[in-house]
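Researcher: Here's the sequence for the chain we discussed earlier.
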Amino acid sequence: MKETVCLVTGGFDPVHSGHIAYIASAKKYSDYVVVGINSDQWLIDKKQIYLMPWEERAAVIENLKSVDQVIAFDDGDGSAVDAIHQCLKFAKKVIFANGGDRGKSNTPEVVAFHDNERVEFIYGAGGENKKNSSSWLISDFTDKYVSTFLPSGLSKVTTIHAPWGCHTSFLDAEGFKVKQLTVYPGGILSLQKHHHRMEHWVVGSGIATVELDGMKVILNPGEYIEIPLQSVHRLSNDGKVDLIVIEVQCGKILEESDIVRLEDSYGRKSE
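Model: Thanks. This is the structure I predict for it:
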C-alpha cells in the first residue's frame, strides 16, 4: 500500500505541451503520479470524434518521465470518480490534481468524496494560464489541411440551424455552392424563389416532397430535380426519418439574402 499518490485525468487527445506541464506538476504533490486517461467514448460524447485511440494516448503518456502508472477507468458518468476509487485500492491517500480550468463548482468528484479524509483536491495544477488546447491544435491542423489539399472553394464547412432542420455548406466557390440539407420529420422549408440562382437537388436518403411552380413531386433516394431561376418552390419531409438532400446552387449571387419567401410555417420573412 502506497502512502500517497497524485492522480491526474483527462482525454489528452492529442497530447500537447499543456498536458505535459499539468502532469509534471503532479510530482510536487507526490512521488508517485497516476494518470487516468478518459475513454474513446468519453471523447465522442464531448467532441463527437477522437483523434488518437486510447491505446495510442496511453502509449505516449506512460513514457513521460513524470508518470509512474497509467490507468483506464469507467467514465460513463462523465467524471473521474472510478479513477479515484481505483487509486484508493493501492494508496492510503489520493491527491486529485485538477488543471487551471477547474474549480470546486465544476469538479463533480468533490460531491462523491467530500467527506472522505483519504481524498484531497487541488486546483491550478500546471498553472492557471492555458498553454495549449487539443481543440486549438486540431482546428489549426484542419485549416492548414483544407487550404493546402482541398479545392479553393472548400475553405470552411459551416452548419446553420433552422426551424426545419439544418444546412451545411461544403463548397463555396465562384458561381456555385454545394450544401447538404437535413430536413427533420415534419419539417417544411418556406415557399420561396430566387432572383439570382438556380438549384439542383439530389435526394441522399429519406423521401422528399417538392413543390415546384404549383406541381407536387415525390423524390426517392437517388432521384433528382432541377429548380429553375425564379421558380416558386418548397421542400418538405412528410416521412418519419431525416431527409438528406444535396443541393448545388449555380448563379451570380449565392447568399441567403437571395431568398424571397412567399409563405413560411415559422413566421420568417425575407431578408
